[in-house]
Design the sequence.
């Protein structure tokens, strides 16, 4: 014991608990009353600042507002586009804020003027790669908190630019395949069109979809040739700009085009894919991921990677302890499923997407080599 601690022990009076019984209860009640008096005498805590809010409405198309500071927001379609619902395009989006975290948007609905929100990285760390994030929500909501906004700082630290897609929802009267998939494809074209202005590598632009969002991401990897052919008409400002994603993330997906007996053709230049799902605890989504994987392997598409975790449920599913499974990149109480995003970065780095901009990626070289060979024989 140091001299100072000995002096403290000798000079300070000993704290004594009043004991048990009614005296202890009275002492505890007195202490609680004192705490309440102090709390009631304090001013109320200040309100949170910088809460994101939807923009004003008028007769013009609604102007989407950034959901994270610094976001560059770009509507996907020009005013008067035949792809927009003219009777509702002026309506404001609805933001559902977290009840416990001030300023955090959990989900968005009432999206009638779909948009993309670009978040760049610092020039000194810029790989030129860009991930378009497509959140899930069962086509009822767009869960941009866990499945979009949280990824902006994560990818920022790896030198990867991010784009949050706000696509239209079935709950607001839109058709998923006709409208929402078109929004995803249009986002790929717009980002590639802005590559030079935004210091992006036009050959490192891809898309990552979560749950219902994967129902938008997966078709972009299969039908890009058809979309490019039918949407490059004279007068289109994006004519000639390819919507082929350079990579695709299919994360605990909803039904892909291969589900329920679907058998679409797989283009030989289909992009590399990263797939992830929980296993038996998220059985149906794991099966949908595996159907996509099997189709890519049968076609021989290079650089397709899949992680089906033994322990994991779908986001929102109840857990034995009464809580619910989290989504996106959250830790998930320490189970390996919670580290899938690091496996994605391993895959992404291996394919050359994190090297300096302008250098041909391994993914591009492998696709070119695959196209130079005869198609693989069908699996018997």
Sequence:
């Amino acid at each position: 014991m140091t001299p100072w601690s000995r002096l403290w022990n000798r000079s300070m009076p000993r704290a004594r608990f009043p004991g048990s019984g009614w005296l202890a209860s009275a002492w505890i009640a007195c202490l609680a009353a004192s705490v309440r008096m102090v709390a009631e005498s304090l001013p109320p805590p200040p309100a949170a600042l910088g809460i994101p809010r939807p923009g004003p409405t008028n007769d013009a198309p609604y102007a989407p507002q950034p959901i994270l500071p610094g976001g560059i927001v770009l509507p996907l379609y020009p005013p008067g586009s035949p792809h927009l619902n003219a009777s509702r395009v002026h309506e404001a989006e609805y933001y559902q804020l977290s009840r416990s975290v001030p300023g955090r948007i959990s989900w968005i609905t009432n999206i009638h003027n779909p948009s993309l929100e670009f978040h760049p990285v610092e020039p000194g760390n810029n790989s030129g790669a860009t991930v378009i994030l497509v959140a899930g929500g069962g086509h009822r909501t767009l869960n941009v908190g866990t499945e979009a906004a949280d990824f902006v700082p994560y990818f920022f630290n790896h030198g990867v630019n991010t784009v949050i897609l706000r696509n239209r929802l079935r709950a607001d009267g839109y058709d998923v395949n006709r409208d929402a998939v078109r929004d995803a494809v249009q986002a790929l074209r717009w980002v590639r069109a802005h590559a030079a202005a935004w210091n992006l590598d036009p050959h490192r632009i891809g898309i990552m979809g979560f749950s219902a969002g994967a129902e938008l991401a997966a078709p972009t990897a299969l039908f890009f040739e058809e979309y490019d052919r039918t949407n490059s008409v004279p007068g289109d400002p994006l004519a000639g700009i390819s919507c082929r994603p350079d990579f695709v993330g299919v994360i605990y997906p909803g039904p892909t085009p291969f589900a329920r007996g679907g058998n679409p053709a797989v283009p030989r230049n289909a992009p590399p894919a990263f797939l992830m799902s929980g296993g038996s605890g998220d059985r149906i989504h794991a099966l949908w991921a595996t159907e996509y994987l099997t189709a890519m392997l049968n076609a021989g598409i290079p650089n397709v990677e899949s992680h089906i975790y033994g322990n994991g449920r779908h986001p929102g599913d109840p857990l034995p302890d009464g809580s619910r499974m989290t989504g996106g990149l959250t830790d998930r109480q320490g189970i390996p499923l919670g580290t899938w995003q690091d496996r994605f970065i391993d895959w992404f780095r291996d394919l050359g997407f994190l090297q300096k901009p302008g250098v041909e990626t391994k993914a591009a070289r492998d696709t070119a080599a695959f196209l130079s060979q005869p198609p693989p024989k069908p699996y018997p």
Remarks:
- The chain has one domain: 72-371.
- DSSP finds ten helices and ten strands in the chain.
